[in-house]
């Protein structure tokens, strides 16, 4: 993991492999952003012109490298595009946190192989310090455990394209003794380390991450962070009547698990429950996925990874809120013992479900976990799942959908997501779509109308939320796994989608700002 430090040192005298500065896209060319004054001065105030000559425009994510000016102990200047200049009448003309987060992430990735880089980006408050730090830590992420250069005991030194990730990011202009700045770095470190751990889980191949292995990871992390953990194996699940989780996992040689992580604080006044879909591999079961749709299905446990990371982060930050995480873990495989289309499962709630499509399995494991979470009467439940391809069709690959049984709570979740830089969009739960799940055999079917399939899935889940409990559903099927190239602080592969939204919801609840 990249180290994150603060420094008030003058840029010219700092020893580092590179100094990162910001450049914005102005009406008449690139504009050097605040924080780079010393570098600009060393170019006699002509740094913007030099950058323009080199082809820089200040566009978001653009990288321009140039030799450091005379007198600097740093050999390289890395100018990263911040995008459009901030409007003067918005936040006093300050750059928003997401712009800083993206810029530092791009720069950190570009500096793979470097031991130390100084980030001289615009800082007006502690939030900016945290955003720069978070972006650098997330952007430097690399998953190379299975590559040859990470073998022989060197997995922890994993390399990106033959280069080790940036070893240290120094935030210039931030004060190491300032309580707010120090707290911002501590938060950025905790969030980023746990989010990157979620990314590791998502990227781990399914032959190494089955339900039992995932549960073991959760148990180890819980022990390290003072979190109470309970793991229900297949025998306990059968005894408890968890028909949904057992039904999905019945076709696999790897038995399912339900993991409960309980973080409590002595001063907590509220209780949140997070529920995550943890299908460690999804073949579709008997309703087998067609060729071309199986290759990335190791990511179908991204919701559980997000919940796991969020609970551990809450514990590391010592948030004054009780947070319970439920990881519904199973592997969905076809075999002679697999659930068949037409089978009826009796869920943990007692309700029966006719399984019309075994590839609509996520809602089955979530249903059991949602009811278990409801039994504790939390103040709110939020589930996270790579649930439907329909949501990807609706919102694309970078935005997740938010559904809820309470409009105010849906808005609060959406705002929290946008605040931390996770694109989200509120989606409805149209009552007329519920009828399509009526079954002549059982209480409900696991499939309904094809059109609006993401909303149908949300309506199904709502059936398993306890009466009177506020609930929201995040369908992260689009942004959970990035099959394209990296962008901003987002790598290719597992992204950790949902982690920061859940953490922010926990923070808002702890502070009393979520109702």
Structure write-up:
The protein is an alpha/beta fold and 515 residues long. Helix content is 32%, strand content 21%. The protein has helices at residues 37-42, 47-53, 97-110, 126-139, 179-203, 211-224, 234-240, 243-249, 302-317, 362-374, 389-395, 407-419, 453-462, 499-511; strands at 3-7, 18-26, 29-32, 63-67, 76-84, 116-120, 168-172, 228-232, 257-263, 271-282, 322-332, 344-346, 352-354, 380-385, 400-404, 424-426, 444-445, 470-475, 481-482, 493-494. The protein has an 8-stranded mixed β-sheet with strand order 8-9-11-10-14-18-15-16, sandwiched between helices. Strands 1, 2, 3, 4, 5, 6 and 7 form a 7-stranded mixed β-sheet that branches. A hairpin with a 5-residue loop joins strand 12 (344-346) and strand 13 (352-354). Helix 5 (179-203) runs antiparallel to helix 9, helix 8 (243-249) runs antiparallel to helix 10 and helix 9 packs parallel to helix 14. The longest helix has 25 residues, at 179-203. Residues 152-156 have low confidence and may be disordered.
Helices and strands, with pairings:
Blueprint: E1 3-7, E2 18-26, E3 29-32, H1 37-42, H2 47-53, E4 63-67, E5 76-84, H3 97-110, E6 116-120, H4 126-139, E7 168-172, H5 179-203, H6 211-224, E8 228-232, H7 234-240, H8 243-249, E9 257-263, E10 271-282, H9 302-317, E11 322-332, E12 344-346, E13 352-354, H10 362-374, E14 380-385, H11 389-395, E15 400-404, H12 407-419, E16 424-426, E17 444-445, H13 453-462, E18 470-475, E19 481-482, E20 493-494, H14 499-511
Helix pairs in contact: 3-4, 4-5, 5-9, 8-10, 9-14, 12-14
């Amino acid at each position: 993991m990249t180290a994150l430090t603060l420094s008030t040192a003058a840029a010219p005298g700092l020893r580092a492999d590179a100094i990162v500065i910001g450049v914005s896209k102005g009406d008449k060319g690139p504009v050097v952003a605040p924080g780079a004054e010393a570098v600009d001065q060393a170019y006699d105030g002509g740094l913007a012109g030099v950058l323009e000559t080199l082809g820089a425009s200040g566009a978001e994510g653009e990288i321009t490298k140039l030799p450091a000016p005379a007198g600097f102990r740093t050999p390289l200047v890395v100018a990263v595009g911040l995008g459009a200049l901030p409007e003067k009448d918005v936040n006093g003309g300050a750059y928003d946190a997401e712009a800083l987060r993206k810029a530092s992430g791009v720069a950190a990735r570009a500096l793979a192989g470097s031991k130390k880089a100084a980030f001289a980006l615009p800082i007006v408050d502690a939030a900016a310090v945290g955003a720069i730090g978070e972006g650098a830590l997330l952007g430097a992420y690399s998953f190379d455990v299975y590559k040859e250069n990470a073998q022989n005991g060197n997995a922890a030194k994993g390399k990106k394209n033959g280069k080790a990730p940036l070893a240290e990011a120094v935030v210039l202009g931030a004060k190491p003794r300032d309580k707010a700045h120090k707290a911002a770095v501590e938060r950025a470190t905790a969030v980023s380390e746990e989010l990157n751990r979620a990314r590791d889980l998502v990227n781990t191949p399914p032959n190494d991450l089955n339900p039992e292995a995932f549960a073991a990871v959760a148990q180890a992390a819980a022990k390290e962070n003072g979190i109470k953990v309970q793991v229900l194996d297949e025998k306990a699940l059968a005894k408890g009547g968890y028909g949904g989780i057992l039904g999905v996992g019945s076709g696999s040689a790897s038995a399912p698990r339900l993991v409960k992580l309980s973080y409590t604080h002595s001063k907590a006044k509220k209780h949140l429950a997070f529920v995550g879909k943890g299908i460690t591999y999804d073949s579709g079961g008997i309703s087998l996925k067609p060729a071309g749709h199986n290759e990335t299905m190791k990511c179908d446990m991204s919701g559980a990874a997000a919940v796991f990371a969020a609970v551990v982060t809450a514990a590391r930050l010592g948030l004054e809120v009780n947070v319970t995480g439920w990881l519904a873990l199973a592997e969905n495989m076809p075999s002679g013992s697999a659930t068949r289309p037409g089978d009826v499962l009796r869920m943990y709630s007692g309700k029966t479900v006719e399984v019309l499509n075994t590839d609509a399995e996520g809602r089955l494991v979530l249903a059991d976990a949602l009811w278990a979470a409801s039994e504790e009467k939390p103040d709110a439940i939020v589930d996270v799942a790579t649930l439907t391809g329909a949501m990807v069709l609706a919102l694309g690959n970078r935005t997740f959908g938010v559904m809820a049984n309470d409009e105010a709570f849906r808005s609060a979740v959406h705002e929290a997501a946008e605040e931390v830089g996770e694109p989200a969009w509120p989606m409805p739960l149209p009552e007329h779509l519920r009828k399509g799940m009526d079954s002549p055999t059982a209480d409900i079917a696991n499939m309904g109308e094809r059109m609006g399939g993401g909303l149908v899935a949300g309506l199904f889940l709502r059936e398993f939320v306890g009466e009177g409990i506020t609930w929201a559903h995040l369908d992260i099927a689009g942004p959970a796994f990035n099959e394209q190239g990296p962008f901003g602080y987002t790598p290719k592969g597992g992204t950790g989608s949902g982690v920061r939204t859940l953490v922010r919801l926990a923070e808002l609840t702890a502070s009393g700002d979520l109702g």
